[in-house]
Amino acid sequence: MNSYRRVMNTLGGLPVDRPPVFAVLGAYGAGLTGCDLRTLYCDPAAYLAGQRAVQESYGFDLVLAPFDFSAISEAFGGETVWGGLQTPNVRRYPARTVNEALSLPLPAPSTAARLPVMIEATRGLARCYKEEVPVIAVLPGPGILPALLTGLEQWLETLLFEPEQAARLLDHSSPFLVGLANTLLEAGADCLVFTEGMASAEIAPRGLFADAILSHLTATFGAINGPKVVSSTGGRLNHTLDLIPGLPGVVGAIIGSKDDPAESRRLTPAGFNLIGNLDNLAFASASACEISRLALDRLSAHAPEGHFVLANSGGDLPQNTPAANLKALKESVASYKASPGGNT
Amino acid sequence: MAKSASGAACDCEEFYRQVLDAMINADRTKAAAIIERALDCGIPPARVIAEVLDPAIVQLGTLWEGESMSLAQNFIASKIAEDALLRCLPDHEKDRDRKGVAVIGNIEDDFHSLGRRTVGLFLNAAGWQVVDLGNDVPAEQFLEKAREVGARVIGVSAMMQTTAMNIRKLRDLIDGAGEQERIKLAVGGAVFNWRPELVTEVGGDGTTRNAVGADELFTCLQEQARIPERAL
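C-alpha coordinates for the assembled complex are given below, as produced in the milestone run.
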Protein backbone atom coordinates (compact mmCIF):
# COMPACT_ATOMS: atom_id res chain seq x y z
CA MET A 1 0.00 0.00 0.00
CA ASN A 2 1.52 3.32 -1.00
CA SER A 3 1.20 6.52 1.01
CA TYR A 4 -1.51 7.92 -1.23
CA ARG A 5 -3.77 4.90 -0.76
CA ARG A 6 -2.94 4.71 2.97
CA VAL A 7 -3.95 8.33 3.52
CA MET A 8 -7.04 8.16 1.32
CA ASN A 9 -8.20 4.95 2.98
CA THR A 10 -7.67 6.51 6.40
CA LEU A 11 -9.69 9.57 5.45
CA GLY A 12 -12.41 7.37 4.01
CA GLY A 13 -12.49 4.92 6.91
CA LEU A 14 -11.21 1.98 4.85
CA PRO A 15 -8.64 -0.58 6.05
CA VAL A 16 -4.96 0.42 6.01
CA ASP A 17 -1.71 -1.48 6.57
CA ARG A 18 -0.63 1.02 9.26
CA PRO A 19 -1.62 4.53 10.40
CA PRO A 20 -0.23 7.33 8.20
CA VAL A 21 2.48 9.50 9.72
CA PHE A 22 3.78 12.94 8.81
CA ALA A 23 6.09 15.70 10.02
CA VAL A 24 6.11 19.33 8.86
CA LEU A 25 9.52 19.56 7.25
CA GLY A 26 9.38 22.34 4.66
CA ALA A 27 12.49 24.28 5.70
CA TYR A 28 14.15 21.05 6.80
CA GLY A 29 14.61 20.17 3.13
CA ALA A 30 17.11 23.01 2.80
CA GLY A 31 19.33 21.40 5.41
CA LEU A 32 19.28 18.13 3.50
CA THR A 33 20.14 19.64 0.13
CA GLY A 34 22.57 22.28 1.45
CA CYS A 35 20.53 25.16 0.11
CA ASP A 36 19.89 28.43 1.95
CA LEU A 37 16.33 29.23 3.01
CA ARG A 38 15.98 32.21 0.73
CA THR A 39 16.68 30.05 -2.31
CA LEU A 40 14.41 27.32 -0.97
CA TYR A 41 11.41 29.66 -0.78
CA CYS A 42 12.18 31.62 -3.97
CA ASP A 43 13.02 28.80 -6.36
CA PRO A 44 10.37 26.09 -6.97
CA ALA A 45 13.05 23.64 -8.16
CA ALA A 46 15.04 24.12 -4.93
CA TYR A 47 11.92 23.58 -2.84
CA LEU A 48 11.01 20.46 -4.79
CA ALA A 49 14.55 19.11 -4.33
CA GLY A 50 14.21 19.72 -0.59
CA GLN A 51 10.95 17.79 -0.35
CA ARG A 52 12.37 14.97 -2.43
CA ALA A 53 15.31 14.77 -0.02
CA VAL A 54 12.93 14.70 2.95
CA GLN A 55 10.88 12.00 1.28
CA GLU A 56 13.93 9.89 0.41
CA SER A 57 15.36 10.26 3.93
CA TYR A 58 12.24 9.57 5.96
CA GLY A 59 9.41 8.40 3.72
CA PHE A 60 6.57 10.16 5.51
CA ASP A 61 3.06 9.71 4.11
CA LEU A 62 2.50 13.27 2.87
CA VAL A 63 4.61 15.87 1.08
CA LEU A 64 4.29 19.55 1.81
CA ALA A 65 3.98 22.49 -0.57
CA PRO A 66 5.74 25.69 0.61
CA PHE A 67 4.36 26.66 4.01
CA ASP A 68 5.37 30.31 3.80
CA PHE A 69 2.87 32.97 4.86
CA SER A 70 5.39 35.78 4.36
CA ALA A 71 4.83 35.23 0.62
CA ILE A 72 1.17 36.17 1.11
CA SER A 73 1.99 39.30 3.10
CA GLU A 74 4.59 40.20 0.48
CA ALA A 75 2.03 39.79 -2.31
CA PHE A 76 -0.12 42.46 -0.61
CA GLY A 77 2.89 44.80 -0.35
CA GLY A 78 4.57 43.69 2.88
CA GLU A 79 8.27 43.13 3.41
CA THR A 80 9.89 39.81 4.29
CA VAL A 81 12.80 39.14 6.62
CA TRP A 82 15.07 36.19 5.98
CA GLY A 83 16.45 34.56 9.12
CA GLY A 84 19.26 32.06 8.94
CA LEU A 85 17.52 29.08 10.49
CA GLN A 86 13.82 29.80 10.32
CA THR A 87 11.15 30.10 7.68
CA PRO A 88 10.82 33.65 6.35
CA ASN A 89 8.81 36.08 8.41
CA VAL A 90 7.03 39.39 7.92
CA ARG A 91 9.23 42.40 8.68
CA ARG A 92 6.69 45.05 7.67
CA TYR A 93 2.99 44.44 7.18
CA PRO A 94 1.30 45.77 4.03
CA ALA A 95 -1.03 48.05 6.02
CA ARG A 96 -0.87 49.90 9.33
CA THR A 97 -4.61 49.96 9.85
CA VAL A 98 -7.64 47.97 8.77
CA ASN A 99 -8.76 50.98 6.73
CA GLU A 100 -5.50 50.86 4.81
CA ALA A 101 -5.85 47.10 4.36
CA LEU A 102 -9.31 47.60 2.89
CA SER A 103 -7.84 49.79 0.17
CA LEU A 104 -5.21 47.23 -0.86
CA PRO A 105 -5.90 45.60 -4.22
CA LEU A 106 -6.12 41.81 -4.09
CA PRO A 107 -3.00 40.23 -5.56
CA ALA A 108 -3.25 37.75 -8.42
CA PRO A 109 -1.98 34.35 -7.22
CA SER A 110 -0.30 33.54 -10.52
CA THR A 111 1.81 36.69 -10.70
CA ALA A 112 2.13 38.50 -7.37
CA ALA A 113 5.49 38.43 -5.57
CA ARG A 114 6.47 34.87 -4.55
CA LEU A 115 3.00 33.32 -4.84
CA PRO A 116 3.98 31.73 -8.17
CA VAL A 117 6.73 29.90 -6.26
CA MET A 118 4.09 28.26 -4.08
CA ILE A 119 2.06 27.31 -7.12
CA GLU A 120 4.98 26.04 -9.22
CA ALA A 121 6.42 24.05 -6.32
CA THR A 122 3.00 22.47 -5.76
CA ARG A 123 2.81 21.60 -9.45
CA GLY A 124 6.28 20.06 -9.29
CA LEU A 125 5.38 18.00 -6.22
CA ALA A 126 2.19 16.79 -7.89
CA ARG A 127 4.11 15.73 -11.02
CA CYS A 128 6.58 13.85 -8.86
CA TYR A 129 4.21 12.19 -6.39
CA LYS A 130 0.74 12.08 -7.98
CA GLU A 131 -1.19 9.16 -6.54
CA GLU A 132 1.92 7.94 -4.73
CA VAL A 133 2.21 10.47 -1.90
CA PRO A 134 -0.52 13.05 -1.25
CA VAL A 135 0.51 16.68 -1.68
CA ILE A 136 -0.78 19.09 0.94
CA ALA A 137 -0.71 22.87 0.68
CA VAL A 138 -1.00 25.13 3.72
CA LEU A 139 -2.85 28.44 3.79
CA PRO A 140 -3.86 30.88 6.51
CA GLY A 141 -7.44 30.46 7.70
CA PRO A 142 -9.90 33.15 6.61
CA GLY A 143 -10.08 34.52 10.17
CA ILE A 144 -6.34 34.97 10.61
CA LEU A 145 -5.50 36.10 7.05
CA PRO A 146 -6.12 39.78 7.95
CA ALA A 147 -3.36 39.51 10.57
CA LEU A 148 -0.95 39.01 7.66
CA LEU A 149 -2.10 42.36 6.28
CA THR A 150 -2.07 44.49 9.44
CA GLY A 151 -0.23 42.48 12.12
CA LEU A 152 -1.97 40.51 14.85
CA GLU A 153 -2.31 43.38 17.32
CA GLN A 154 -4.10 45.66 14.89
CA TRP A 155 -6.28 42.80 13.71
CA LEU A 156 -7.27 41.75 17.23
CA GLU A 157 -7.99 45.32 18.22
CA THR A 158 -10.32 45.78 15.25
CA LEU A 159 -11.99 42.43 15.76
CA LEU A 160 -12.63 43.22 19.40
CA PHE A 161 -13.54 46.89 19.24
CA GLU A 162 -14.74 47.51 15.67
CA PRO A 163 -16.44 44.26 14.64
CA GLU A 164 -18.19 45.76 11.61
CA GLN A 165 -14.92 47.03 10.21
CA ALA A 166 -13.34 43.64 10.91
CA ALA A 167 -16.15 41.92 9.02
CA ARG A 168 -15.48 44.21 6.05
CA LEU A 169 -11.82 43.15 5.95
CA LEU A 170 -12.79 39.48 6.22
CA ASP A 171 -15.13 39.95 3.26
CA HIS A 172 -12.50 41.92 1.35
CA SER A 173 -9.69 39.37 1.80
CA SER A 174 -11.76 36.21 1.31
CA PRO A 175 -11.79 36.24 -2.54
CA PHE A 176 -8.00 36.30 -2.55
CA LEU A 177 -7.89 33.21 -0.35
CA VAL A 178 -10.45 31.46 -2.52
CA GLY A 179 -8.43 32.28 -5.64
CA LEU A 180 -5.13 31.10 -4.20
CA ALA A 181 -6.66 27.94 -2.72
CA ASN A 182 -8.34 26.91 -5.95
CA THR A 183 -5.15 27.66 -7.91
CA LEU A 184 -3.16 25.38 -5.59
CA LEU A 185 -5.75 22.64 -6.05
CA GLU A 186 -5.56 23.06 -9.83
CA ALA A 187 -1.76 22.84 -9.55
CA GLY A 188 -2.15 19.41 -7.97
CA ALA A 189 -2.57 19.80 -4.23
CA ASP A 190 -4.61 16.86 -2.93
CA CYS A 191 -5.73 18.61 0.23
CA LEU A 192 -5.56 22.10 1.73
CA VAL A 193 -4.70 22.81 5.34
CA PHE A 194 -5.99 26.09 6.77
CA THR A 195 -4.17 27.22 9.89
CA GLU A 196 -6.91 29.12 11.66
CA GLY A 197 -5.32 30.82 14.66
CA MET A 198 -8.62 32.35 15.72
CA ALA A 199 -9.93 28.84 16.45
CA SER A 200 -7.15 28.19 18.95
CA ALA A 201 -7.76 28.60 22.69
CA GLU A 202 -4.44 30.40 23.06
CA ILE A 203 -5.53 33.16 20.67
CA ALA A 204 -9.27 33.75 21.06
CA PRO A 205 -12.15 32.70 23.31
CA ARG A 206 -14.78 30.43 21.79
CA GLY A 207 -17.36 33.21 21.69
CA LEU A 208 -15.19 35.46 19.55
CA PHE A 209 -14.50 32.64 17.10
CA ALA A 210 -18.14 31.57 16.97
CA ASP A 211 -19.57 35.08 16.64
CA ALA A 212 -17.06 36.90 14.47
CA ILE A 213 -15.17 34.26 12.47
CA LEU A 214 -17.14 31.07 11.92
CA SER A 215 -19.56 32.43 9.34
CA HIS A 216 -16.62 33.71 7.28
CA LEU A 217 -15.07 30.24 7.35
CA THR A 218 -18.36 28.81 6.09
CA ALA A 219 -18.59 31.30 3.23
CA THR A 220 -14.94 31.06 2.20
CA PHE A 221 -14.68 27.28 2.43
CA GLY A 222 -17.90 26.96 0.46
CA ALA A 223 -16.20 28.64 -2.49
CA ILE A 224 -13.09 26.44 -2.38
CA ASN A 225 -13.13 23.10 -4.12
CA GLY A 226 -11.47 20.03 -2.70
CA PRO A 227 -10.95 18.59 0.76
CA LYS A 228 -9.84 20.86 3.58
CA VAL A 229 -8.33 20.44 7.01
CA VAL A 230 -8.43 23.05 9.77
CA SER A 231 -5.31 23.39 11.90
CA SER A 232 -5.00 24.83 15.38
CA THR A 233 -1.52 26.16 14.48
CA GLY A 234 -0.23 24.12 17.41
CA GLY A 235 -2.53 25.61 20.06
CA ARG A 236 -5.45 23.87 21.72
CA LEU A 237 -8.45 23.33 19.47
CA ASN A 238 -10.86 21.35 21.63
CA HIS A 239 -12.70 24.48 22.80
CA THR A 240 -13.96 25.09 19.23
CA LEU A 241 -13.53 21.63 17.70
CA ASP A 242 -17.25 20.81 17.72
CA LEU A 243 -17.82 23.76 15.36
CA ILE A 244 -15.37 22.53 12.71
CA PRO A 245 -16.84 19.33 11.22
CA GLY A 246 -19.86 21.02 9.68
CA LEU A 247 -17.81 23.48 7.63
CA PRO A 248 -17.99 22.97 3.83
CA GLY A 249 -15.52 20.39 2.57
CA VAL A 250 -13.69 20.05 5.89
CA VAL A 251 -12.60 16.43 6.33
CA GLY A 252 -10.41 16.77 9.39
CA ALA A 253 -8.68 18.91 11.99
CA ILE A 254 -5.12 19.12 13.22
CA ILE A 255 -5.49 19.25 16.98
CA GLY A 256 -2.93 20.70 19.38
CA SER A 257 -0.44 18.67 21.38
CA LYS A 258 -2.21 19.69 24.60
CA ASP A 259 -5.66 18.65 23.39
CA ASP A 260 -7.02 15.62 25.19
CA PRO A 261 -7.46 12.92 22.50
CA ALA A 262 -10.55 11.37 24.10
CA GLU A 263 -12.20 14.77 24.33
CA SER A 264 -11.32 15.49 20.68
CA ARG A 265 -13.06 12.26 19.68
CA ARG A 266 -16.07 13.03 21.81
CA LEU A 267 -16.43 16.45 20.19
CA THR A 268 -16.36 15.22 16.61
CA PRO A 269 -18.73 12.95 14.68
CA ALA A 270 -17.78 9.43 13.63
CA GLY A 271 -15.74 9.52 10.44
CA PHE A 272 -14.19 12.90 11.12
CA ASN A 273 -10.40 12.79 10.80
CA LEU A 274 -8.03 13.91 13.52
CA ILE A 275 -4.42 14.73 12.77
CA GLY A 276 -1.39 15.75 14.83
CA ASN A 277 -1.45 15.78 18.64
CA LEU A 278 2.38 15.74 18.92
CA ASP A 279 4.32 18.65 20.41
CA ASN A 280 6.55 20.50 17.94
CA LEU A 281 8.96 21.72 20.57
CA ALA A 282 9.73 18.22 21.78
CA PHE A 283 11.24 17.21 18.50
CA ALA A 284 14.51 19.15 18.71
CA SER A 285 15.21 18.53 22.38
CA ALA A 286 13.77 15.13 23.30
CA SER A 287 15.56 11.83 22.77
CA ALA A 288 14.51 9.40 20.06
CA CYS A 289 13.17 7.10 22.79
CA GLU A 290 11.01 9.89 24.13
CA ILE A 291 9.66 10.72 20.66
CA SER A 292 8.86 7.05 20.17
CA ARG A 293 7.07 6.91 23.53
CA LEU A 294 5.03 10.05 22.78
CA ALA A 295 4.12 8.77 19.32
CA LEU A 296 3.02 5.35 20.60
CA ASP A 297 1.00 7.02 23.32
CA ARG A 298 -0.88 9.09 20.73
CA LEU A 299 -1.34 6.09 18.45
CA SER A 300 -2.81 4.08 21.30
CA ALA A 301 -5.26 6.88 22.00
CA HIS A 302 -6.34 7.58 18.42
CA ALA A 303 -5.56 4.76 16.03
CA PRO A 304 -8.10 2.18 17.26
CA GLU A 305 -10.88 4.51 16.03
CA GLY A 306 -9.18 4.96 12.64
CA HIS A 307 -9.45 8.33 10.91
CA PHE A 308 -6.13 9.43 12.42
CA VAL A 309 -2.86 10.73 10.97
CA LEU A 310 0.02 10.94 13.44
CA ALA A 311 1.90 14.23 13.01
CA ASN A 312 3.38 17.20 14.80
CA SER A 313 0.76 19.82 15.57
CA GLY A 314 2.37 23.13 14.67
CA GLY A 315 4.49 24.61 11.92
CA ASP A 316 7.89 23.62 10.64
CA LEU A 317 10.00 21.48 12.92
CA PRO A 318 13.32 23.13 13.82
CA GLN A 319 16.21 22.42 11.47
CA ASN A 320 18.24 21.02 14.35
CA THR A 321 15.72 18.22 14.89
CA PRO A 322 17.89 15.10 15.02
CA ALA A 323 17.41 12.63 12.18
CA ALA A 324 17.07 9.90 14.82
CA ASN A 325 13.95 11.62 16.19
CA LEU A 326 12.30 11.74 12.77
CA LYS A 327 13.17 8.10 12.20
CA ALA A 328 11.73 7.25 15.61
CA LEU A 329 8.50 8.98 14.62
CA LYS A 330 8.32 7.06 11.35
CA GLU A 331 9.14 3.75 13.03
CA SER A 332 6.52 4.26 15.72
CA VAL A 333 3.69 3.47 13.30
CA ALA A 334 5.32 0.16 12.37
CA SER A 335 5.91 -0.65 16.07
CA TYR A 336 2.32 0.21 16.83
CA LYS A 337 1.05 -1.99 14.02
CA ALA A 338 3.12 -4.89 15.35
CA SER A 339 1.85 -4.46 18.91
CA PRO A 340 -1.03 -6.61 20.26
CA GLY A 341 -3.55 -3.74 20.13
CA GLY A 342 -2.26 -2.27 16.92
CA ASN A 343 -4.70 -3.58 14.35
CA THR A 344 -5.86 -0.91 11.97
CA MET B 1 -20.68 50.62 53.07
CA ALA B 2 -20.62 53.92 51.17
CA LYS B 3 -23.26 54.77 48.57
CA SER B 4 -22.88 56.57 45.27
CA ALA B 5 -24.94 59.60 44.30
CA SER B 6 -27.41 57.22 42.68
CA GLY B 7 -27.58 55.15 45.84
CA ALA B 8 -25.59 52.18 44.52
CA ALA B 9 -23.34 50.35 46.95
CA CYS B 10 -19.66 51.31 46.82
CA ASP B 11 -17.86 48.10 47.57
CA CYS B 12 -14.35 47.62 46.15
CA GLU B 13 -14.76 43.85 46.32
CA GLU B 14 -17.90 44.05 44.20
CA PHE B 15 -16.29 46.45 41.73
CA TYR B 16 -13.31 44.08 41.47
CA ARG B 17 -15.64 41.20 40.62
CA GLN B 18 -17.42 43.28 38.00
CA VAL B 19 -14.16 44.48 36.39
CA LEU B 20 -12.83 40.94 36.31
CA ASP B 21 -16.05 39.77 34.68
CA ALA B 22 -15.76 42.54 32.07
CA MET B 23 -12.15 41.54 31.37
CA ILE B 24 -13.05 37.88 30.97
CA ASN B 25 -15.90 38.81 28.65
CA ALA B 26 -13.65 41.19 26.73
CA ASP B 27 -16.00 44.12 27.41
CA ARG B 28 -13.88 47.27 27.46
CA THR B 29 -16.84 49.66 27.56
CA LYS B 30 -18.40 47.94 30.55
CA ALA B 31 -15.07 47.93 32.41
CA ALA B 32 -14.69 51.66 31.83
CA ALA B 33 -18.21 52.25 33.19
CA ILE B 34 -17.44 50.22 36.33
CA ILE B 35 -14.26 52.20 37.00
CA GLU B 36 -16.27 55.38 36.48
CA ARG B 37 -18.89 54.21 38.97
CA ALA B 38 -16.20 53.38 41.53
CA LEU B 39 -14.71 56.86 41.23
CA ASP B 40 -18.19 58.34 41.27
CA CYS B 41 -18.73 56.68 44.63
CA GLY B 42 -15.88 58.69 46.04
CA ILE B 43 -13.40 55.84 46.24
CA PRO B 44 -9.97 57.48 45.88
CA PRO B 45 -8.26 56.68 42.55
CA ALA B 46 -5.35 55.01 44.34
CA ARG B 47 -7.77 52.61 46.05
CA VAL B 48 -9.52 51.89 42.76
CA ILE B 49 -6.17 50.86 41.34
CA ALA B 50 -5.06 48.91 44.41
CA GLU B 51 -8.34 47.23 45.36
CA VAL B 52 -10.28 46.97 42.10
CA LEU B 53 -7.92 46.91 39.15
CA ASP B 54 -4.89 45.24 40.66
CA PRO B 55 -6.67 42.18 42.13
CA ALA B 56 -8.58 41.76 38.86
CA ILE B 57 -5.28 41.68 36.98
CA VAL B 58 -3.81 39.21 39.47
CA GLN B 59 -6.84 36.93 39.12
CA LEU B 60 -6.60 37.21 35.36
CA GLY B 61 -3.02 35.97 35.64
CA THR B 62 -4.21 32.98 37.64
CA LEU B 63 -6.77 32.19 34.96
CA TRP B 64 -4.06 32.44 32.31
CA GLU B 65 -1.91 30.03 34.33
CA GLY B 66 -4.83 27.64 34.25
CA GLU B 67 -4.93 28.06 30.46
CA SER B 68 -8.46 29.40 30.53
CA MET B 69 -7.59 32.79 29.02
CA SER B 70 -6.72 33.64 25.44
CA LEU B 71 -4.39 36.18 23.89
CA ALA B 72 -7.43 38.27 22.88
CA GLN B 73 -8.69 38.42 26.47
CA ASN B 74 -5.22 39.28 27.73
CA PHE B 75 -4.99 42.02 25.13
CA ILE B 76 -8.31 43.48 26.19
CA ALA B 77 -7.26 43.32 29.83
CA SER B 78 -4.18 45.37 28.99
CA LYS B 79 -6.36 47.96 27.26
CA ILE B 80 -8.74 48.04 30.23
CA ALA B 81 -5.82 48.49 32.59
CA GLU B 82 -4.50 51.33 30.45
CA ASP B 83 -7.95 52.98 30.27
CA ALA B 84 -8.40 52.67 34.03
CA LEU B 85 -5.00 54.06 34.82
CA LEU B 86 -5.50 57.05 32.56
CA ARG B 87 -8.87 57.66 34.20
CA CYS B 88 -7.59 57.22 37.75
CA LEU B 89 -4.37 59.13 37.26
CA PRO B 90 -5.11 62.07 34.99
CA ASP B 91 -1.77 63.57 35.94
CA HIS B 92 -0.18 60.32 34.96
CA GLU B 93 3.08 61.76 33.64
CA LYS B 94 4.32 62.77 37.05
CA ASP B 95 3.99 59.17 38.27
CA ARG B 96 5.55 57.60 35.27
CA ASP B 97 8.99 57.11 36.77
CA ARG B 98 7.92 56.00 40.20
CA LYS B 99 8.97 52.39 39.69
CA GLY B 100 11.97 52.75 37.38
CA VAL B 101 12.91 52.40 33.74
CA ALA B 102 12.34 49.21 31.77
CA VAL B 103 13.85 48.57 28.35
CA ILE B 104 11.85 46.05 26.34
CA GLY B 105 11.94 44.63 22.81
CA ASN B 106 11.78 41.55 20.64
CA ILE B 107 15.16 39.95 20.10
CA GLU B 108 16.91 39.95 16.72
CA ASP B 109 14.93 38.08 14.02
CA ASP B 110 11.73 38.05 16.11
CA PHE B 111 8.76 39.97 14.77
CA HIS B 112 5.90 38.85 17.01
CA SER B 113 5.14 42.09 18.79
CA LEU B 114 1.77 41.60 20.48
CA GLY B 115 3.05 39.99 23.67
CA ARG B 116 5.78 42.60 24.06
CA ARG B 117 3.36 45.46 23.47
CA THR B 118 0.96 44.05 26.06
CA VAL B 119 3.82 43.78 28.57
CA GLY B 120 4.65 47.42 27.84
CA LEU B 121 1.05 48.46 28.50
CA PHE B 122 0.94 46.62 31.82
CA LEU B 123 4.33 47.95 32.93
CA ASN B 124 3.31 51.45 32.01
CA ALA B 125 0.03 51.06 33.84
CA ALA B 126 1.99 49.91 36.89
CA GLY B 127 4.15 53.04 36.86
CA TRP B 128 7.25 52.05 34.90
CA GLN B 129 8.86 54.27 32.32
CA VAL B 130 8.92 51.90 29.37
CA VAL B 131 11.46 52.23 26.58
CA ASP B 132 10.15 49.97 23.83
CA LEU B 133 12.77 49.22 21.18
CA GLY B 134 10.34 47.32 18.94
CA ASN B 135 10.97 44.19 16.87
CA ASP B 136 14.19 42.63 15.62
CA VAL B 137 16.46 44.35 18.14
CA PRO B 138 20.16 43.37 18.13
CA ALA B 139 21.63 42.39 21.51
CA GLU B 140 24.03 45.34 21.43
CA GLN B 141 21.16 47.82 21.12
CA PHE B 142 19.42 46.46 24.23
CA LEU B 143 22.53 46.91 26.34
CA GLU B 144 23.40 50.35 24.94
CA LYS B 145 19.87 51.63 25.57
CA ALA B 146 19.76 50.22 29.11
CA ARG B 147 23.02 51.99 29.92
CA GLU B 148 21.80 55.22 28.31
CA VAL B 149 18.51 55.39 30.25
CA GLY B 150 19.78 53.81 33.45
CA ALA B 151 17.49 50.78 33.24
CA ARG B 152 18.26 47.92 35.58
CA VAL B 153 15.91 45.50 33.88
CA ILE B 154 15.83 44.55 30.22
CA GLY B 155 12.80 42.59 29.04
CA VAL B 156 13.32 40.51 25.92
CA SER B 157 10.57 38.73 24.04
CA ALA B 158 10.78 35.84 21.58
CA MET B 159 7.99 33.72 20.22
CA MET B 160 9.93 30.88 18.64
CA GLN B 161 12.68 28.59 19.81
CA THR B 162 15.02 29.64 17.00
CA THR B 163 14.74 33.33 17.82
CA ALA B 164 14.80 32.73 21.58
CA MET B 165 18.31 31.36 21.22
CA ASN B 166 19.42 34.82 20.00
CA ILE B 167 18.83 36.07 23.57
CA ARG B 168 21.93 34.13 24.59
CA LYS B 169 24.01 36.77 22.81
CA LEU B 170 22.59 39.50 25.06
CA ARG B 171 23.31 37.37 28.13
CA ASP B 172 26.93 36.98 26.98
CA LEU B 173 27.23 40.71 26.29
CA ILE B 174 25.97 41.63 29.77
CA ASP B 175 28.23 39.08 31.42
CA GLY B 176 31.21 40.02 29.24
CA ALA B 177 30.82 43.64 30.32
CA GLY B 178 30.67 42.56 33.98
CA GLU B 179 27.21 44.07 34.34
CA GLN B 180 25.32 40.95 35.40
CA GLU B 181 24.78 42.33 38.90
CA ARG B 182 23.63 45.74 37.66
CA ILE B 183 21.36 44.76 34.78
CA LYS B 184 18.89 41.90 35.02
CA LEU B 185 17.43 40.06 32.06
CA ALA B 186 13.71 39.23 31.96
CA VAL B 187 12.68 36.89 29.14
CA GLY B 188 9.26 35.96 27.87
CA GLY B 189 7.15 34.84 24.94
CA ALA B 190 5.10 31.85 23.92
CA VAL B 191 8.03 29.48 23.60
CA PHE B 192 9.07 30.02 27.23
CA ASN B 193 5.62 28.94 28.38
CA TRP B 194 5.89 25.75 26.41
CA ARG B 195 9.50 25.09 27.36
CA PRO B 196 10.28 26.72 30.74
CA GLU B 197 13.79 25.22 30.75
CA LEU B 198 14.59 27.59 27.89
CA VAL B 199 14.78 30.47 30.40
CA THR B 200 17.98 28.99 31.81
CA GLU B 201 19.28 27.95 28.40
CA VAL B 202 19.19 31.51 27.07
CA GLY B 203 20.48 32.98 30.35
CA GLY B 204 17.33 34.72 31.57
CA ASP B 205 17.20 35.94 35.18
CA GLY B 206 13.46 35.43 35.30
CA THR B 207 10.29 35.10 33.32
CA THR B 208 6.56 35.54 33.58
CA ARG B 209 3.99 33.46 31.79
CA ASN B 210 2.00 36.51 30.77
CA ALA B 211 1.96 40.29 30.64
CA VAL B 212 -0.11 40.49 33.80
CA GLY B 213 2.86 39.27 35.83
CA ALA B 214 5.37 41.65 34.25
CA ASP B 215 5.23 44.30 36.99
CA GLU B 216 5.94 41.76 39.74
CA LEU B 217 8.81 40.20 37.76
CA PHE B 218 10.42 43.53 36.85
CA THR B 219 10.08 44.83 40.41
CA CYS B 220 11.69 41.70 41.78
CA LEU B 221 14.56 41.82 39.26
CA GLN B 222 15.13 45.51 39.85
CA GLU B 223 15.47 44.84 43.56
CA GLN B 224 18.03 42.14 42.79
CA ALA B 225 20.05 44.46 40.57
CA ARG B 226 22.74 46.19 42.56
CA ILE B 227 24.21 49.58 41.80
CA PRO B 228 28.01 49.16 41.46
CA GLU B 229 29.93 50.49 44.42
CA ARG B 230 31.92 52.94 42.31
CA ALA B 231 28.65 54.66 41.36
CA LEU B 232 27.67 55.29 44.98
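The two ends of chain A are 13 Å apart (CA to CA). Chain A has a mean pLDDT of 94. Further analysis is deferred to the final report.
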